[in-house]
Amino acid sequence: MSHYSQAKFNLSAPDISHLCADQGIEVAFAGRSNAGKSSALNRLTRQKSLARTSKTPGRTQLINVFDLDEDRRLIDLPGYGYAKVPMAIKLKWQKSLGEYLQKRESLKGLVVLMDIRHPFKDLDQELIQWAVAADLPVLGLLTKADKLKSGKRKAQLLMAREASLAFCGDVTIHLFSSLNGLGLDNCERVLDKWFGYAQDEALEQE
């Protein structure tokens, strides 16, 4: 059984001051409003409606916290880059996002979801730069990978991996599809490392 299928909704917070105590391990998911973040979280947790998917991009304006156990949490950050959100809200959100990435001690990794057809838009790059500056490892997931044929998929993956070198940080890029589960195993391997599941299992085997 996957560790992630145990995820349970804990709370929604308007900003980091309303989050639970800054202890344990958190991994945050972020992405543009149409990158398929909610679908990816639902696929990872094997739950159809843990994260609300919406036909209206930009619906998630709160930080949603999902508990895996007493010490481990998945954090669903608001989708960014949605045109219809008022500028004042965008600026407030950018400020609290920067604070969260730079000040949250329990944050151990950031998953950035990008549509495979349009990776590394300006806000994606800004987010990855913030994370690298805060010494956080980044997993870039190229979502909706099922929309491209195999050859084009591989070409986009190689191009994205090449582009990721410019960040000069711990940035890993993998393909992902919420629809058919492509790349789910790679995603889980990275998360297992960040959450310390891999170490726990190694200790049990000794």
UniProtKB/TrEMBL annotation:
Residues 23-197 form the EngB-type G domain. InterPro entries: G_ENGB_dom, GTP-bd, GTP-bd_ribosome_bio_YsxC, P-loop_NTPase. The keyword Kinase does not apply. GO terms for cellular component: cytosol. GO terms for molecular function: GTP binding; metal ion binding. GO terms for biological process: division septum assembly. Keywords: Cell cycle, Cell division, GTP-binding, Magnesium, Metal-binding, Nucleotide-binding, Septation. Its cofactor is Mg(2+). Belongs to the TRAFAC class TrmE-Era-EngA-EngB-Septin-like GTPase superfamily. EngB GTPase family. PANTHER family: ENGB-TYPE G DOMAIN-CONTAINING PROTEIN, MSS1/TRME-RELATED GTP-BINDING PROTEIN. Necessary for normal cell division and for the maintenance of normal septation. This is Probable GTP-binding protein EngB. It comes from Paraglaciecola mesophila KMM 241. The lineage of its organism: Bacteria, Pseudomonadati, Pseudomonadota, Gammaproteobacteria, Alteromonadales.
